[in-house]
Amino acid sequence: MCFASDGTKPTNKKCPKCNLKQDYANKKCTECGFEFPPEEEPKRRQKECPECGLEQPFTNRTCSECGFAFPRATGIGKKPGGPGGPGGPGGPGGPK
Ligand SMILES: [Zn+2]
Ligand SMILES: [Zn+2]
User: Fold this and answer.
1) Which of 34, 67, 69, 93 would suit a FRET pair with 9, their CA atoms being 20 to 30 Å apart?
2) pTM of the predicted protein model
3) Are 31 and 23 in contact (CB under 8 A)?
């Protein structure tokens, strides 16, 4: 072990249940059988503008280059309190 740590990927992980070191590729703890959550690859934090092709932070709602308005992400991870919920115009909990 004479390699300096330079942020390379870990080769092992620790079981949160029994704290035993496990091979990083293990899907289950060999000791207690704890199932490790599926590896989550960090998704691209950039998106490409379909209009001008500029890559920009995923949080941008409009293209910083051409002003293209990105459609709102739908489907996955639907947030509660969407349109039509309480507090909306005409709905319950209207103006005070
Ligand atoms: Zn374990
Ligand atoms: Zn653009």
Assistant:
1) 34
2) 0.35
3) no
One digit per residue, the tens of pLDDT, for the chain of length 96 reads 555 556 677 789 999 999 999 998 899 999 999 999 876 666 667 889 999 999 988 889 999 999 999 987 665 555 555 555 565 566 576 566
Residue 61 is classified by DSSP as S
Q: b vs e for 6-19, b when ≥16 Cβ sit within 10 Å of the residue's Cβ?
A: eeeeeeebebeeee
CA of 40 to the centre of ligand 1 (A): 20
- Could you give the maximum distance between any two Cα atoms of the chain, in Å? 68
Q: Which of 20, 19, 24 is nearest to 8 (CA)?
A: 24
CA of 25 to the centre of ligand 1 (A): 14
Whole-number Å distance, alpha carbon 3 to ligand 1 midpoint, is 28
For residue 36, give the ligand nearest its CA.
1
Nearest ligand for residue 68 CA: 2
